Amino acid sequence: MLKVQNINKYFGGLKAVNNVTLKVNQGSITGLIGPNGAGKTTLFNTIAGVYSPNSGEIFLEDNNITGLKPHELFNLGILRTFQIAHEFSSLTVLENLMMVPNKQLGENLIYAWFKNSLVKKQEEEIRAKAIEVIDFLNLSHLTQELAGNLSGGQKKLLELGRTMMVDSKLVLLDEVGAGVNRTLLNEISDAIIRLNKEKNYTFFVIEHDMDLIEKICDPVIVMAEGSVLFEGKFAQVKSNEEVIEAYLGRGMKVKKA
Ligand SMILES: Nc1ncnc2c1ncn2[C@@H]1O[C@H](COP(=O)(O)OP(=O)(O)OP(=O)(O)O)[C@@H](O)[C@H]1O
Ligand SMILES: [Mg+2]
Q: Are residues 115 and 207 in the same domain?
């Protein structure tokens, strides 16, 4: 589904992403792990159109999408969540979901003025869709809560919900587990698995929480110092000497199996 070929992204002299080639297969939940500063978020930002790569190419289902802007990628079905959640804190959970761009007729003034009933009908459809998403994520009790009042984990669920308001093909998740308690983390990972199985989403997941990676990701790709170091099943990753060294070398805590 996604092919990244020889991507380089430099910040001045720093090779944040250094000749990365990888692919994410359709229907997979592919993990991306690696020590802090490995270049994971930079790679995501390059795929998601936030940065243009210095060189290399990115393909979505054989279409060259290198250098496309985030909104163009959005229209092609590539969505991302952020390492830090981006909710509208003074809007409710329901309103946050209804804000997701959806080729809304209401934004077109001609429609707004002359085809009021059509706009209203579409708004009702969007509201119904948002409520469906809220139910899917078990957030019904928070429908009218201001997003700013949600816990960190609930905000991550809301971000996942935003990807469900449109027909996503590929969802990039940057540290959905960060700062989230165990119970909610299980809910998030269950939601990811259900979206993958029931709605046919493909996921590319950056995560430091190895339990989450082990539970949901196959394969797992390891980056270190801008490059891909290893790819395989989590069990192989866990026992790979180079991977262990890459983590320990940076002083990261590695959980013993
Ligand atoms: N906008 C930027 N300008 C300059 N340097 C940057 C920028 N963004 C990231 N970097 C640097 O690029 C390298 C890779 O950073 P990146 O955020 O991609 O790592 P990461 O793997 O996502 O790390 P973490 O696990 O801590 O989130 C780091 O050395 C970082 O300091
Ligand atoms: Mg990062």
A: no
pTM over 0.85: yes
Q: Which atom of ligand 1 is nearest to the CA of 43?
A: 18
Q: Which amino acid is at 171?
A: V
Other CB atoms within 10 Å distance of the CB of residue 227: 16
User: Quick one: 79 and 175 in the same domain?
Assistant: yes
Query: Do 21 and 78 belong to one domain?
Result: yes
- Measured CA to CA, the distance from residue 171 to residue 154 in angstroms comes to 18
For residue 97, what is the DSSP state?
H
Rounded distance, CA 184 to CA 187, Å?
Answer: 5
Q: Atom 17, ligand 1: which residue's CA is nearest?
A: 41
At CA 101, angle to CA 97 and CA 102, rounded to 5? 100
**Has residue 161 been placed in a domain?**
no
Task: Name the residue with tokens 């899917």.
Answer: 136
Q: How much of the chain, in percent, has pLDDT values that exceed 90?
A: 60
Overall average pLDDT of the 29-50 stretch: 95
Pairing of strands 227-232, 78-80: unpaired
Q: Enumerate residues lining ligand 1, CB below 6 A.
A: 11, 14, 16, 34, 36-42
Task: For the chain, give the number of residues.
Answer: 257
Question: Residue 156 falls within a domain, yes or no?
Answer: no
Domain with 208 in it: what CATH number?
3.40.50.300
Quote the domain boundaries for residue 83: 2-87+167-249
Residues 198/27, Cβ–Cβ less than 8 Å:
no
Count up the domains in the chain and report the number.
Answer: 2
For residue 256, the model assigns a pLDDT of 45
Look at residue 22 and tell me if it is in a domain.
yes
Mutation test of ligand 1: which of 41, 84, 252 has the most ligand atoms closer than 8 Å to its C-beta? 41
Is residue 130 domain-shared with residue 33, that is, in the same domain?
A: no
